[in-house]
Design brief:
Layout: H1 2-7, H2 19-22, H3 24-35, E1 37-47, H4 55-65, E2 74-77, E3 83-88, H5 94-113, E4 117-126, E5 135-140, E6 145-149, E7 151-152, E8 156-157, H6 159-169
Antiparallel strand pairs: 1-3, 1-4, 2-3, 4-5, 5-6, 7-8
Helix pairs in contact: 4-5
């Protein structure tokens, strides 16, 4: 059946995977050398807690204790009803941060909350100002793709920078082809 579908031009949907998230380590080298951006050591996992009573609390507990960090993850809520799990690693250690983010995603998925997961983010900043991210790489698990988000001011976006970074990283990590799907985090 798969052969028939491929002959007729039908594509299978992308199966959610966390492997591309780990490939961000390679992209970090390009971001550092080409744009002067280094990992801040901060990232998030975002999900919407919906469904059975108490499930949101259960998911928050699972997400809060995931990872191997000495400092526990911080679980907050935003104005849009999303739950955000913030993870961080000292000294911008991207490898450990990515492992923690994958662990949060994986534990939530194994506990039955995979359909609630929205996206995972990793922040990058200029070396001289690590407290203010200049770029957030957003990973959309259901599509298996990344898109860059470069904030400008309080509400704007630097689309030119986003497009340049997308072009630079296309061969390194899977990038979202439809830029209309790029949404602010």
């Amino acid at each position: 059946m798969a052969l028939l579908g491929s002959l007729l031009g039908r594509n299978r949907s992308v199966r959610p995977s966390l492997l591309p998230l780990l490939e961000l380590r390679s992209a970090a080298l390009t971001l550092r050398s080409g744009y002067g951006l280094a990992p801040t050591g901060a990232g998030t996992v975002c999900f919407v807690a919906a469904g059975r009573p108490g499930a949101g609390t259960e998911a928050e507990i699972i997400a809060g204790i995931a990872g191997d960090s000495v400092r526990r993850n911080v679980v907050t809520h935003d104005a849009h009803g999303r739950t955000i799990v913030r993870c961080w690693r000292e000294n911008g250690n991207l490898g450990w941060l990515l492992d923690d983010l994958v662990d949060v995603n994986d534990r939530l998925g194994q506990a039955g909350f995979a359909s609630w997961l929205l996206h995972t983010t990793v922040d990058f900043a200029e070396s001289r100002d690590m407290r203010h991210p200049r770029l957030t790489m957003v990973y959309r698990r259901e599509r298996g793709t990344f898109y860059p988000y470069a904030p400008r001011g309080t509400r704007g976006r630097d689309r030119a920078t986003e497009l340049r970074i997308r072009s630079s990283l296309t061969r390194i990590v899977p990038m979202e082809a439809d830029i209309g799907r790029w949404r602010p985090v």
